[in-house]
Amino acid sequence: MSLIDWTVLVGTLAFIVIYGVYRSRGKQNMDDYLIAGQSLPWYHVCFSVMATQASAITFLSAPGQGFADGMRFVQFYFGLPLAMVVLSITFVPIFHRLKVFTAYEYLETRFDARVRMFTVALFLLSRGLSTGLSIYAPSIILATILGWDLTWTNILMGSLVLIYTVSGGTKAISHTHLQQMIIVTVAMCVAGYMVVHLLPADVGFVDALKIAGKAGRLNTIDFHFDPNSRYNIWSGLIGGFFLQLSYFGTDQSQVGRYLTGESIGQSRLGLMMNGLLKIPMQFLILLVGVLVFVYYQYNPSPLFFNKVETDKLKNSEYAADYQSLEQKHIASVQNQQVAVNGLAKAMDEGHEEEVKRWQASLKESDETQKSLKKDAVALIKKNNPTADTSDVNYVFLRFVLDRLPIGLIGLLIAVIFSASMGSIAAAYNSLASTTVVDIYKRMVRKDASESHYLMASRLSTIGWGIFCIIVAQYASKLGSMIEAVNILGSLFYGVILGIFLVAFYFKSIGGKATFWGSVVAEIGVVLCWWFDLTAFLWLNVIGCLLVIGFARIAQSFVNRSSAA
Amino acid sequence: MSVPEPENEQEGLPPFIKTWPQMYAIVIGTLFVLMLLFYAMMRYFA
User: Fold this and answer.
1) With an 8 Å Cβ cutoff, are A85 and B34 in contact?
2) Which of A38, A195, A312, A390 has the greatest number of CB atoms lying within 10 Å of its CB?
3) A100 and chain B: CB distance < 8 Å anywhere?
C-alpha cells in the first residue's frame, strides 16, 4: 500500500476511535453503560443493528459470492423484514416495559433461573467463540494479501474497539456504528462506480447487467423448493425468518442495540428501517461482485485469487502441474473474451441465434474455469493441507489492490476494519452485559453499588476482549473447528428462539416443561445435523418447532403428575 | 409475570403513517415489491 493509502486507513480508524471516546465523556452509571440510558433515536438503533450484523466478512465474502455464484445469496435475507415485524410487535414492547438489561433476564421472570442460565450458557459459549472467529476471519485475509503479521493483525483488530467500548460502553458503540455505516456505504458506492468506470468504454452499466444476466449471474430468485439447497426463496423466507428472528430476538449483541431506543416507538422504527434497508444494501454489495465478474470477462483474471498460496505452489514440487492448469486457464480466458465481445455485438444487433450461441460459449468458458479452479484447489491442498482455499474471500480484495486507484485502496481496507469493529464492539458489550447482569449480579454480588457494577462491566469487557483475541490467535490451529463453530450457532439459535416463543405465546407452559422440552429438542437438532438430514438454515426452524412441541408434551406430564 | 401498561402507541411513527399495523404493512409490502422487481430484472436480463 502507498503512503496515501496508509494515511487514509490510519486517519479513518483514528477518527472512529477518537469519536467513540469523545462521545463517551461525562459521568456514567450501569444504565448508561449497558443500554445508553435508553436515550437514542431510531436512526441510531437502525444503523447500530445494521453495523452489528454486517461483519468484515460481509464486505469481503459477499462480493466474492456475487462474482462466483451470482445474486442468489440475497434470498437469504428475505425473512428479515418479516422477523423485524414480529420483533416490533412482541419482543420490543416486553423487553422495554420490563426494563431489562439483557433478554435472558426476562426468562427468569417468565420461567425460572434454570431456563435463564441454560440460555445464558448457550449464548456465552457460541458468541464468545464466534467473536474470536470474527476477529480471525478478516485478519487472516488481510495478513495474507498485504503480508502483515497475523498475530499483530488479530491484536489490532480485536483491541482497537476495546479503547472506546471499555470507556464509553453502548453509547460510544452506537455513535461509532453510525459513522461506520456512513463510511462503509460511501466506500461501497464509490467501489461500484469504479468497477463500471474500469469496463471498456463502449460497455455501460446496463450493458454490464445484460452480460451478467446472460452469464447466469443475475439469478436473484429461485422458486425451486429443495430442503438441501441453501439459497432459494423458500429457505430465505421460512428458514431465514426463523434465523433472523432468533438472531435479533435472542442474541444479546442485537437485543442490546434496540434496547437503547428512547422509547418503544423509537426502537420499533429503527427495526422497521432495518427491515426496509437491509435487502437493498445486500443486493448492492452482491451487485458490486457481479460487476467485478463482468470486469473479468473483458480482462484476464487469475486462476486463483489468493496469490500467496499460488506463489507457494509455484515454488513447490507441484509447480509444473499448476503451470499446466494456468495455461489451460489462459486459453479459456481468451475464448471467454471472444465470446463476451461476440455476445455484446449480437445483443446490440438483436441477432437472437447469435446471442444464444455466444451465451453457450460464455457459459462453457465459465464451467471450464470453475473446473480448473477445483483442480488448482486440490493442488494447493496437496501442497499445504492447512491452506485457506475459499477463494471467494479473496476476489474483491485482490481486485481492490490490483485495479483501484491510490487512496481508494486505503478507504476500502478501512471499510473492512470498520465493519469488523462494528460487530466486534457489539459482541464485547453483549458478552460483558450478560456476564455482569445474568451471572455476577444474579449469583455473585447481588447488592453492590452502581459504581461497582459499572467497574465490573468494564473489567468484563476487557476480559472478553482478551478471550476473543486469544480464540482468534488459536483459530488457525483449529482447522475444521472454524466450520464446527459456525454450525454451533445454527444448532443453538433455533432452540433459544423456541424457548422465547414459548415464553411469549404459550402462557400455560411452565419452566420445568420448557427446560426439559428444550433439552430434548437440542438433542433432536444435533441428530438432524449429525445425520446430515437438511441444509443448516432449516435447523433453526426444526429447533424452534421441537422446543414448542416437546415443551407442550412435557407440560401435559407435569399437569398429570400435579393432578395425581 | 406482569407487563406494565403500554405507553403512547403512536409514538415513533413517521408523520405520514397513522398506526403501527400500517407501518408493518409497508415493510412487508416493500419486501414483496423487491422480490417482484428482482424477479422481473432476472427475467429481463436472462
Assistant:
1) no
2) A195
3) no
